[in-house]
Structure formats: structure tokens, C-alpha cells
Amino acid sequence: MPCLNISTNVALDGVDTSAILSEATSTVSKLMGKPESYVMIVLKGSIPVAFGGTEQPAAYAELVSVGGLSPDVNKKLSAAISAILETKLSVPKSRFFLKFYDTKGSFFGWNGSTL
């Protein structure tokens, strides 16, 4: 049920995106206590992004979930996801925003219905 949607201005050509997707999936699953089979990660690169007036490497992400989010979990997720982006894409932690959305099951579509 958690969906992490990441947009970055970093080009993904030649980047091992499978490693990023795999690491992000296991991180979200572990920290949120959700099965990996329900975690979705979307990674979009080469998106025009300006942060602080420059186009240096930056990223924005949104994590939507039905439950599993809290101030403590969100802080751990922010640290872990920013570390992945810094290591794999050279996006400094200071140039990354992550927005959290905790939603109701009736507002989350899956398998042709809602949760």
C-alpha cells in the first residue's frame, strides 16, 4: 500500500535503477512494517527541478500510505531515503524534500477496487 514517488533532475542513463528500486522497497517495507509485496516505488529522472535557485542535483518525493506513518517513522524514512539518493544519485540530503500522506483505504485504489 505504500507508494513512494521520487522525481529528480539527475539523469538516470547508466544508473543502476534496479538497485535504487530494490533498496527503497526494502527500506520502506522494513521501516513501515508493511510487506514488500505491497510497496511501490516510482523513480523519474531528468525532471526539470530548481532548488534554492540552482539546478544542481535535487529531488522531491511523496510517500502515500494507508497507515504505517507517524512522526518517528517519517523521520526514519526521510533519513533512509535521502541516504539512498545521496549514495546512488549524488543528491545531497539538503537538496531533497519528502512529503508524507497518510490516507484512508477508501481513498486508495488497488486491484480494481479500493482498500
Structure description:
The structure is a single chain. The protein is an alpha/beta fold. It contains 2 helices and 6 strands; from the N terminus they run E-H-E-E-H-E-E-E. It has helices spanning 17-32, 71-89, and strands at 3-8, 40-44, 59-65, 96-102, 109-110, 113-114. It has a 4-stranded mixed β-sheet, with helices on one face. Strands 5-6 form a two-stranded antiparallel ribbon. The longest helix has 19 residues, at 71-89.
What's the layout of helices and strands?
Elements: E1 3-8, H1 17-32, E2 40-44, E3 59-65, H2 71-89, E4 96-102, E5 109-110, E6 113-114
Parallel strand pairs: 1-2, 3-4
Antiparallel strand pairs: 1-3, 5-6
Report, as a whole number of angstroms, the end-to-end distance.
9 Å
Strand content of the residues, in percent?
25-35%
**How large is the radius of gyration?**
14 Å
Structural class, by secondary structure, is alpha/beta
Strand order of the largest sheet: 2-1-3-4
Mean of residue pLDDT values: 97
Low-confidence stretches: none
The major beta sheet can be summarized as: 4 strands, mixed
Put simply, the count of helices is: 2
Summarize the amount of helix as a percent range.
Answer: 25-40%
Query: Can you tell me the overall shape?
Result: globular
SSE order, one letter for each helix or strand = EHEEHEEE
Q: What is the tally of beta strands?
A: 6
Quick synopsis:
The protein is α/β, with parallel strands linked by helices and 115 residues long. 30% of the residues lie in helices and 25% in strands.
